[in-house]
Write a structure and sequence with these properties.
The complex is a heterodimer of chains A (289) and B (382). Chain A is mostly helical. Chain A has a domain at 60-236: Orthogonal Bundle (MetI-like fold). Helices cover 81% and strands 0% of the residues of chain A. Chain A has helices at residues 2-30, 47-54, 56-89, 96-108, 111-129, 137-162, 165-173, 178-207, 210-215, 223-229, 237-288. Chain A is globular and about 85 Å long. The N and C termini of chain A lie far apart (61 Å). Chain B has 382 residues and is of the alpha/beta class. Classes of the chains: A mainly alpha (289), B alpha/beta (382). Chains A and B meet through helix 3, helix 5, helix 6, helix 8 and helix 10 of A and helix 1, strand 1, strand 2, helix 3 and helix 11 of B.
Chain lengths: 289, 382
């Protein structure tokens, strides 16, 4: 009985992982395929990695995508944290429901609508105030912030509502000004949420196609746009090579992040225990005295 | 506590650093975006928006070297994407490459600037017959120059078709539209373009009617013809068939000339022993043009004209044709094109075959609605 259940669990685990990772594994395998056709195995070869290095179009697009993703994720984290903080800490105020609705709207808005409305906004703004002049990286970054900020807000807000208010209150009791409390107490505690918010924003920005294709201008084709435009003639295997490199980078990033976070967690637990022990000692000494 | 302090400092430093680097990068983009908006004269650029893999990269380098004008080259994958950008206005592009069918509507919408023909002496190289045909889309060729052109015909895997039916009429639309014939190839794989205008037009050609007819009765007749063969069609898609044909998953496709040849080359490259053929059926076929045009609000019209003029040079046009496997409209370039391509009657048709080719004209909004309804019924098989 027990054994049967264990077997079932293992099976589900394997199937789950297979569902998630077989596509990625096959992509990695085919990036070493010497044949141009995806379904034909022509032997092991690294020639597509060489072809990738010579393909300026794809490399430029990848560079641009990474830049856009890093900048927009960073700005989205700043703005999303502000919004999350207001929603979680400032209690009920006039227009709170409206604010919370508006900040999370991009989560559920179809991307086509977001993209089109941003495009119209940019065109109108350019006509009226002359900025942004033409569409390009700037407009893509602004659009991606609009999209990803909502996700960061949700992540930060939920983390803040789980956080113990008494820590902040204690700090204020001890005389810290609100901004000091924020930078010394709140921010470090919600840092994991900021990190995951940043990564989420980065990922969303990196693979956004719909909004980007609306707001992109001359000389600003992002990687998804270039890949998608190649679909007409079939995707060439150097894209597989690029994807494999990206997967490797992401995997390393995730492993490093997970490692640091678990170390921090342990450190926090140790700190807490030490504080508890010190507390105990103090109580005992008071009792004795 | 000390630890928390350290963390706070680290995070603050990191966020300052990141946002600072964000700002500086943004400033850098603003600078790099500036020349696009500034009037031509300072730093010369031309922003080109073309189909993906539709030019020899050497040509872009050649143009930059010859003129000192920098080319910013972007690609799109469908006419719809291009049309959205053009109709919103202020796309930022100086040279775009719409298909004539779309160009026709866009010209009517006033999207394009008339060409300054005095800046384009290379227009003399254009085949007058093709120019006249393209003029049905763009009256007087005022706004556009034909870049490449091709046909919508039958692509087939010679060996597989022969095995099923040695005397299959691959040179006739009967192969596609005769249900009894097509049924034989059902298991072998038949693919059709997901393009209502082209497919209904082709059905009308088979029925001996005007492919550009907007008559209700003709549309109904075309729908009936298409419905009869629907059960035998495996895929309806406008690009998947290239790889599928090259992989040997399909027998017969209705496809674009250059794409079928692309499939042939790809099979060769992969060392597959496939013999892929293409034919322009004797009942005639639809032809299409991809054209070069300059948006009315282009910032660098002079550079755009120079770019088009460069593409009109016979040697350059031949280079592009060799690269993309399509025929260009440049008569002076024909002798310079790779002999395999030039002598392939399916790419450079003989005058007799060319006479049977018909353009696929833009249709009225009303007809397009009826056409789309027909097409939905066909695709869903109901």
């Amino acid at each position: 009985m027990n054994q049967g259940r264990n077997l079932f669990r293992t099976l589900v685990l394997i199937l789950g992982f297979a569902f998630l990772y077989i596509p990625i594994v096959s992509l990695i395998v085919y990036s070493f395929n010497s044949s141009r056709l995806v379904t034909v195995w022509g032997g092991f070869s690294t020639k597509w990695y060489g072809a990738l290095l010579r393909n300026d179009q794809i490399l430029n697009a990848a560079m641009l995508s990474l830049k856009v993703a890093a900048i927009s994720a960073t700005l989205a984290v700043v703005l999303g944290t502000l919004a999350g903080l207001v929603l979680a800490r400032f209690g009920p105020f006039k227009g709170r429901t409206l604010l919370s609705g508006l900040t999370t709207a991009p989560l559920v808005m179809p991307e086509v609508i977001t993209g089109l409305s941003l495009l119209l906004l940019f065109v109108t703004m350019e006509q009226i105030i002359g900025w942004p002049a033409g569409r390009g990286m700037t407009t893509i970054i602004i659009s991606h912030i609009t999209l990803t900020m909502a996700f960061v807000t949700v992540v930060v807000q939920s983390r803040l509502s789980q956080m113990d208010d008494s820590l902040e209150e204690a700090a204020m009791d001890l005389g810290a000004r609100p901004h000091k409390v924020f930078f010394l107490i709140t921010l470090p505690i919600i840092a994991p949420a900021l990190m995951s918010g940043w990564l989420l924003a980065f990922t969303l920005s990196l693979d956004d196609l719909v909004i980007t294709s609306f707001v992109a201008g001359p000389g600003s084709s992002t990687l998804p746009m270039v890949i998608f435009s190649k679909v007409r003639l079939g995707v060439s295997p150097d894209i597989n090579a690029l994807a494999t490199i990206l997967v490797a980078i992401v995997a390393i990033g995730v492993i490093v992040a997970g490692f640091t976070m678990s170390r921090q967690q342990k450190q926090r637990e140790r700190d807490a225990q030490m504080a508890l022990a010190a507390n105990q000692q103090m109580i005992e000494s008071v009792k004795k005295g | 506590m000390k630890n928390l302090l350290k963390h706070a400092a680290a995070i603050a430093a990191l966020s300052v650093l990141l946002s600072a680097c964000g700002k500086s990068k943004q400033a850098a983009t603003d600078e790099s975006a500036a020349p696009a908006a500034a009037p031509a004269g300072k730093e010369q650029v031309v922003n080109v928006y073309n189909w993906s893999d539709y030019i020899d990269p050497e040509v872009i380098k050649g143009f930059e070297q010859a003129t000192g004008i920098k080319v910013r080259y972007d690609v799109f994958d469908s006419n719809e994407v291009l049309e959205t950008k053009l109709l919103t206005g202020n796309s930022g592009y100086d040279v775009v490459v719409p298909s004539a069918y779309f160009l026709q509507r866009q010209v009517q919408a006033g999207v394009f600037a008339p060409l300054d023909k005095s800046q384009l002496p290379g227009l003399a190289n254009i085949d007058p017959d093709l120019a006249a045909r393209a003029a049905r889309h763009d009256p007087g060729n005022e706004h556009s120059v034909v870049y490449m052109w091709g046909t919508t015909g039958i692509g087939f895997d010679r060996a597989k078709v022969k095995a099923i039916m040695p005397d299959a009429p691959v040179d006739s639309w009967k192969l596609i539209f005769d249900p009894a014939l097509l049924a034989k190839f059902k298991d072998c794989g038949v693919s059709m373009l997901d393009d209502p205008t082209d497919m209904v037009g082709t059905a009308l050609l088979y029925l001996g009617k005007d492919p550009n007819s907007e008559a209700e009765a003709d549309l109904k007749a075309a729908e009936d013809a298409l419905m009869k063969i629907r059960p035998y069609i495996r895929t309806i898609h406008s690009s998947q068939y290239i790889d599928q044909l090259a992989n040997g998953e399909l027998c017969i496709v209705v496809g674009y000339s250059g794409d079928v040849l692309q499939a042939r080359d790809r099979a060769e490259e992969a060392g597959k022993p496939l013999d892929i053929g293409y034919s322009i059926p004797k009942e005639g076929a639809l032809m299409w043009f991809d054209t070069l045009a300059i948006p009315a609000d282009a910032a660098h019209k002079d550079a755009a004209h120079k770019f088009i003029e460069y593409l009109l040079q016979p040697a350059v046009a031949a280079k592009n044709s060799d690269f993309v496997n399509y025929a260009n409209a440049n008569k002076a370039a024909t002798p310079l094109v790779n002999a395999d391509l030039r002598n392939d009657a399916n790419i450079y048709p003989t005058p007799a075959v060319a006479a049977r080719l018909q353009p696929s004209l833009a249709k009225s909004a009303e007809f397009t609605r009826a056409l789309n309804r027909t097409w939905t019924r066909f695709v869903t098989g109901r």
